[in-house]
Design a protein that fits this description.
By secondary structure, the chain is an alpha/beta fold. It is 31% helix and 24% strand. It comes from Urochloa decumbens.
């Protein structure tokens, strides 16, 4: 895997600052894309510094000091020398013990020549350096820099033993993973380098430079037609960037992706999730705790005159939790309601088609299980209280968004219920279910929620999702498991492709 040789990265200030009017009063700002670059480098596990030419304006100097301080980067002056700039002595010292990269957008042949004489790799953004200075690798746009750096590090440090993982996910999720150390650019202990794929650049050329792609495809759904759920991805509109990735994968079936889109589509539909969970009864044996799916019923409208009959046939009774059939990827997928009597369906605002599901009294505790490769973790979280404590006096259904306003039991309500702890879960049984689901779904990283029904002790899996944050699992445990899972999945899929 990685050799352990440190990587030093120096960004010239010209790469980051917008060209502005000359003078002390000139406004100073970052170039478009510079903030994203700095944010990602902050959690890269690289030693990063910003260099500047002595004599720059007070405004520019102060601005750079603020930038470096906020991202915990170094700050290195370049020294004037015969019209050119010479590298700081520390930079020359680094070259003896580290793999060093200098990135710039200005032509300074003297500086570049001296750095190259000391084994620095130089990358320029723009066209000037590539024309005038031999030995300089040129890229056209700032957004290309991270992928270029990742491929250079792979070549210099680990060769074929290092994998470059291109990833696609929304910014908030990316920042969460990166902040926890899951997305290093310096190779992880498993020899993994993580780099974001940019939708601002042609994706086909980026995909040819990475070994595999990690994605959260649901982050890129623009629109979804619930009437097509059986035939997903028919009826799903993705962002232009994700659509391009999907086409690339169709044209390159041997390309490794974590995980295949077809394995994830069933998790976009709560009815398909229900059909998957029903298969858990295959694990049941006499005398063991019962592990099952919740009883449920699909409805296309709330005004069916025979709804009472259909509920009885599905083994359902009030209260019921009402969920949109579309499980994720659209804004109202998490708009739900708790309904206590049939009259409350008359003005219900939950999107249709919907899934009616039994509400399970579970002592205000939910158990979050995470499958990361071959490892299974779980955590306990406060949840909704028993139904008797939730019923509104108004006779109206209780509506909520499960991502934002989930009704959670108060301390007083918890005292009124049979509060559970992690010992109330049969972890051996649920881990058996996790392995069963992993095999059935063909996924590398997924999560599911378990509640323990009061009275019966039934273990009921009430939700199933792809690539959760697993934030309840300590980073020191979760992140290495995450890296192991990606490496193992890649090697397994490559092995199958070559046989």
């Amino acid at each position: 895997m990685a050799t352990g040789r440190p990587v030093r990265l120096v960004l010239d200030a010209s790469l980051l600052l917008e060209p502005s009017a000359i003078g002390e009063a000139a406004a100073v700002a970052l170039r478009p894309g510079a903030e994203a670059l700095l944010r990602r480098l902050r959690y890269s596990n690289l030693s990063v510094a910003i260099s500047y030419v002595e004599g720059m304006s007070t405004n520019e100097s102060g601005f750079l000091e603020m930038v470096t301080s906020s991202h915990s980067f170094g700050y290195i002056p370049l020294l004037a020398k015969s019209g050119d700039c010479s590298p700081n002595e520390l930079m020359l010292e680094w070259s003896r013990t580290s793999s060093c990269f200098y990135m710039t957008s200005r032509v300074d042949k003297g500086l570049i020549s001296e750095l190259r004489n000391h084994n620095w790799r130089v990358v320029s953004v723009g066209n000037e350096c590539s024309i005038e200075v031999p030995g300089v690798l040129n890229v056209g746009r700032l957004q290309e820099l991270l992928l270029t750096l990742a491929t250079l590090i792979k070549r210099e440090i680990g060769g074929s033993s290092v994998l470059v993982i291109g990833y696609v996910m929304k910014q908030s999720r990316e920042e969460d993973f990166a902040r926890r150390g899951a997305f290093p650019i310096y190779p992880s202990k498993d020899g993994l380098i993580f780099v974001p794929l940019s939708f601002e650049l042609p994706l086909s050329s980026q995909l040819q430079k990475v070994d595999t792609v990690l994605h959260k495809i649901t982050d890129e759904i623009v629109k979804i037609d619930p009437n097509c759920s059986i035939d997903f991805p028919k009826g799903i509109s993705f962002s232009a960037g994700m659509s391009e990735i999907i086409r690339f994968m169709e044209d390159h079936p041997d390309f490794c992706i974590i995980d295949p889109f077809k394995n994830i589509y069933p998790l976009l539909d709560r009815l398909q999730i229900q059909n998957i969970l029903v298969r858990l009864q295959e694990l049941g044996t006499e005398g063991k705790t019962k592990l099952r799916a919740p009883y449920s019923l699909k409805v296309d409208n709330f005004h069916d005159g025979e709804l009472d009959k259909h509920l009885a046939e599905a083994n359902l009774s009030f209260p019921l939790i009402v969920k949109p059939q579309v499980a994720c990827g659209v804004s109202d997928a998490h708009n739900m309601a708790l309904v206590f009597q049939i009259e409350e369906f008359s003005n219900l605002s939950v999107p249709l088609p919907a899934v009616l599901q039994e509400y399970i009294d579970h002592g205000s505790k939910i158990f979050k299980f995470y499958v990361i490769g071959d490892k299974v973790f779980h955590a306990v979280r406060n949840s909704m209280p028993n139904a008797s404590l939730l019923k509104p006096s108004s006779g109206e259904p209780l509506t909520f968004n499960s991502l934002k306003t989930l009704p959670v039991a108060t301390k007083e309500q918890q005292l009124q219920t049979m509060v559970q702890d992690s010992k109330s879960v049969d972890t051996d049984l649920v881990e058996e279910a996790a392995k069963f689901l992993k095999e059935l779904l063909g996924l590398t990283i997924f999560g599911f929620d378990v509640v323990v029904q009061e009275g019966t002790g039934d273990h009921v899996i009430v939700d199933l999702n792809y690539l959760p944050s697993f934030k309840e699992v300590p980073d020191s445990v979760a992140v290495p498991a995450f890296w192991d899972a990606i490496r193992q999945t890649y090697e397994s899929k490559r092995g199958k492709a070559q046989t």
